[in-house]
Specification:
Blueprint: E1 2-17, E2 23-32, E3 43-48, E4 61-62, E5 64-66, E6 69-71, E7 74-78, E8 81-84, E9 93-99, E10 102-109, E11 117-119, E12 123-129, E13 136-142, E14 147-149, E15 155-161, E16 164-171, E17 182-188, E18 192-201
Parallel strand pairs: 4-8, 7-13
Antiparallel strand pairs: 1-2, 1-18, 2-15, 3-14, 3-16, 5-6, 8-11, 9-10, 9-12, 12-13, 16-17
């Protein structure tokens, strides 16, 4: 059953300083469902409205296949990140995606693929296994360095923001098929709370 959840957003100023003596801000995002229970594994990211961000190379990310599952199930990375898909099972897997943001196939293999996959276009990528239909994972590729995934308490922290307006988006794999991230434009200046609805299944 689909129901409305809520994202409670709280922006708090940090004590650190960055270039130009501007205060570095941390945006704390609490993701909860309709009942108030925390929603783990939601991805949250913020894109400055009036400032162009400079993306820097990111370290290699691993999505492991173990016990016929992808671990983690949900991953968020910056555009231009390489992802490897090590197979730690004793059987072969055939990893693929038909998503517009990244189409690829790693044909039946064991161990570690010879080369990682470069995720060079923003968007949601759904990953599966041609051998085991129950295996599914998601990668959200974003054009911003400000991103995080909620923990078991439904909390994510976006760090290093400077004062200004941001488009803040959130997405969870329990959303209806094809659902876009929920977006809210907010001004990050000082302590604040913003609530937006999130359609999610289960909680």
């Amino acid at each position: 059953m689909t129901f409305f959840g809520q994202l409670r957003w709280a922006a708090t100023a940090g004590a650190l300083l960055i270039c130009g003596n501007a205060a570095a801000l941390t945006l704390q995002v609490d993701v909860v469902g309709k009942t108030g229970a925390p929603l783990a594994d939601a991805v949250v990211y913020a894109t400055p409205v009036n400032t162009k961000v400079q993306l820097k190379p990111q370290p290699l990310v691993n999505i492991v296949q173990i016990n016929k599952s992808f671990v983690p199930k949900m991953t968020i990375v910056q555009t231009g990140t390489d992802i490897s898909f090590p197979n730690k099972d004793s059987i072969g897997h055939d990893v693929y995606s038909f998503s517009p943001a990244k189409t690829f196939e790693l044909k039946l293999y064991s161990g570690v693929p010879a080369k990682p996959i470069l995720f060079d276009k923003s968007g949601l990528v759904t990953i599966g296994c041609n051998i085991h239909d129950q295996m599914i994972a998601y990668v959200m590729v974003v054009d911003t360095p400000y991103f995080a995934k909620t923990d078991a308490k439904g909390v994510a922290h976006l760090e290093g923001l400077v004062p200004g307006d941001y488009d803040v988006k959130a997405w969870h794999y329990s959303l209806a098929d094809g659902a876009s991230p929920v977006m809210r434009r907010i001004s990050v200046q000082s302590d604040q709370n913003v609530t937006v609805p999130l359609d999610a299944v289960g909680n």
